[in-house]
Write a structure and sequence with these properties.
single chain, 341 residues, alpha+beta, 5-stranded mixed β-sheet, 8 helices, 36% strand
Length: 341
């Protein structure tokens, strides 16, 4: 069943958000904040993380790098000063509210901002394509982050990285108040998006594309408001799985020596009873092999391996238990994966 967003915005959530930023801007008027000053300045440099993600060292001064900030709030945290042009577009459902608040305080944002829901990005931005997509402290406040992430993918050029920052279990921490209705967490080394009514693994949301994530555990005092931070990087490494190089009959796969992702896409003809293996070799020898099962509802799977590997092989095998302590492995097939850069 297709997921559909609601265009209704909780008025209590709007009131809470405006009250928070009114307080921030009032305090800034009395004692200027370095943080806000940087967000207001067009001279603030592009963060190094983004510079690297867009291959900034290979860009020409005439290049225009398009960046999308989803849920940017009144002011994006992304600086735009770089040795090439940066076209930053922010999208936020409360953009017009923020416009009035900024005007009231005689402040002007240094970037374009468009009103709209993260769940409707393709309609709002008319299927534009971006070189980098970012969202900080926003998707855990959205109506349905699963739809929002799919919309972000639809606007990402092939090769684009999507960086998402959220608080772990934000809705639980906020007792499901205001905009806090969705949670992100980690289960068995996978990102899960959940409410009391549903749980979805990120793998399914992004169609098996590769992603990495890290959780920053924060020290807790007696009055903790914010939860631990989850930073997720999704690699939009293909537009269609048919774009991946063929590895074997019914199987397509590719490994990125630069980023370390391995993506495997298998058709239904592949033996569903057999397990899969991944063997890889780097400059220092073999890495620990991986094994996994194929699921019909997730025909494309991705894994993050060390970058710079010289050889990656995949295949399928059956295992037979000879006794309580002995197993026999029978490889059905194996193939070398194409290395892309």
């Amino acid at each position: 069943m297709a997921l559909e967003p609601s265009r209704e915005i909780d008025p209590h959530g709007v009131e809470d958000e405006m009250a928070y930023w009114e307080k921030v801007f009032n305090e800034h008027a009395v004692t200027p904040s370095g943080y806000l000053t940087a967000k207001l300045s067009p001279a603030t440099p592009l963060p190094q993380q983004i510079f690297r993600a867009v291959d900034g060292d290979q860009r020409k001064p005439s290049d225009v790098v398009k960046i999308l900030d989803v849920g940017c709030g009144p002011l994006s945290v992304i600086g735009t000063s770089a040795p090439f042009s940066v076209a930053l577009t922010g999208v936020d459902p409360l953009s017009e509210h923020y416009d009035r608040l900024l005007s009231k305080h005689n402040l002007k944002r240094p970037h374009k901002s468009v009103p709209g829901l993260a769940e409707e990005l393709t309609r709002i931005l008319l299927n534009q394509k971006f070189d980098y997509i970012y969202s900080r402290n926003a998707l855990d406040h959205s109506q349905d982050p699963r739809i929002a992430i799919r919309e972000m993918l639809a606007l990402a050029k092939v090769g684009t990285q999507i960086h998402i920052n959220v608080c772990e279990n934000e809705a639980v921490n906020a007792a499901y108040s205001g905009f806090h209705q969705w949670n992100f967490t980690s289960i068995d080394d996978r990102v899960a998006i959940w409410t009391p009514a549903a749980i979805t693994f990120l793998d399914h949301v992004i169609g098996g594309r590769p992603y990495s994530f890290a959780i920053s555990r924060l020290e807790r005092g007696n009055n903790v408001r914010y939860g631990d931070q989850i930073d997720i990087t999704i690699h939009n490494n293909f537009e269609r799985t048919s774009d991946l190089p063929a590895a074997s009959d019914g199987v397509r796969a590719a490994y990125s020596a630069k980023h370390g992702w391995l993506t495997i896409s298998a058709e239904a003809a592949v033996d569903p009873t057999a397990s899969w293996f991944v063997h890889a070799q780097g400059q220092d020898g073999h890495i620990k092999p991986l094994s996994f099962r194929h699921y019909e509802d997730l025909p494309t799977r991705s894994f993050m391996l060390p970058p710079g590997l010289s050889k990656v092989e995949i295949g399928q095998f059956h295992v037979r238990f000879e006794s309580a302590d002995e197993r026999a492995y029978n490889n059905l097939w194996r193939a070398q994966v194409a290395i892309v850069h």
